[in-house]
Write a structure and sequence with these properties.
The structure holds two protein chains of two kinds.
Chain A (H helix, E strand, L loop, with lengths): L2 H7 L3 E2 L12 E4 L3 H7 L4 E5 L4 H9 L4 E4 L7 H10 L2 E4 L4 H10 L8
Parallel strand pairs in A: 2-3, 3-4, 4-5
Antiparallel strand pairs in A: 1-5
Chain B lengths: L5 E7 L9 H12 L4 H21 L3 E7 L3 E8 L7 H4 L9 H5 L7 H8 L2 E7 L3 E9 L1
Helix pairs in contact in B: 1-2, 2-5
Classes of the chains: A alpha/beta, B alpha+beta.
């Protein structure tokens, strides 16, 4: 599934301007503890969180993730948005909860992360 | 193969969450340009980021250094204090002394040192209360 298709699936807005929306997603994940995400993050991952600060972008970029999905109407902080755009990381924002996001992604066939 | 050594060092400031990850990102970018295998690169990225964040969260400031030879990459995280009173306890997964600011940002899961240990081929930590902490990690190429 491409990022643009994921945005449609999740009623989400891609808030980063210059990110590649045709990037393929390899798997899905949800977590708000950054060290935990560092232990389990994968290349191409679509990561759901409610964290909005700049370290979210740093972790996603280090892990070479496809995109970050901000749940429950959370918005990226301005500095985080600038950093994401600078790094070419796609960030999606949606009103859905992390639970609902994962449910829809799983139903649509997005793989879980490998353990 | 011609022998060479590449060395790099980055200053890490205490409590500077806004630039957290910059040193690790710079190291990763450089190693990627040099063609380091992506699986090794990922382990180095996790380890350097955790070391960098540990210094930001816990230390009074320090330096993250990387040296590379044809056969290995070494990371050294060296800070100026306050040091770890009980290293065995600090190495336990889930144990953390991170403050509220760090926890609110999603840090302080007690995974930092375990993540470093898991990802490095060799891991060594030395700490003295009041002096500082040195973490040495080695990655085979």
């Amino acid at each position: 599934m491409k990022i643009s298709e994921l945005a449609t699936l999740l009623d989400a807005t891609i808030v980063t301007k210059n990110s590649a929306s045709d990037t393929e997603i390899s798997c899905g994940y949800a977590c708000d503890l950054l060290s935990w995400v560092l232990a389990h993050g994968q290349k191409g991952m679509a990561w759901t969180t409610v964290q909005t600060h700049v370290n979210v972008v740093a972790v996603a970029v280090l892990m070479e993730m496809a995109c970050v999905i901000l749940a429950e109407g959370n918005h990226l902080e301005p500095a985080s948005l600038a950093k994401a755009e600078e790094e070419g990381l796609a960030v999606l924002e949606t009103e859905m909860t992390a639970y609902d996001i994962c449910g829809r992604m799983a139903a649509a066939g997005v793989a879980p992360s490998a353990r | 193969m011609q022998e060479y050594t590449l060395a790099d060092a980055y200053e890490v400031s205490a409590r500077d969450y806004a630039t957290a990850g910059d040193a690790s990102a710079a190291i990763k970018r450089k190693l990627k340009q040099l063609g380091v295998d992506s699986a090794v690169l990922r382990r180095i990225a996790v380890s350097s980021y955790e070391a960098e964040l540990n210094m930001i969260i816990h230390s009074l400031g320090g330096t993250l250094s990387m040296t590379m030879t044809p056969s290995e990459i070494r990371l050294l995280s060296a800070d100026i204090g306050p040091g770890i009173p009980d290293i065995e306890q600090a190495l336990q997964e889930g144990f953390s002394t991170a403050g509220e600011e760090a926890r609110n940002l999603g840090f302080g899961a007690g995974m930092g040192l375990p993540n470093m240990k898991r990802n490095a081929d060799e891991f060594n930590i030395q700490s003295e209360v009041g002096k500082g902490t040195q973490i040495r990690m080695l990655f085979h190429l």
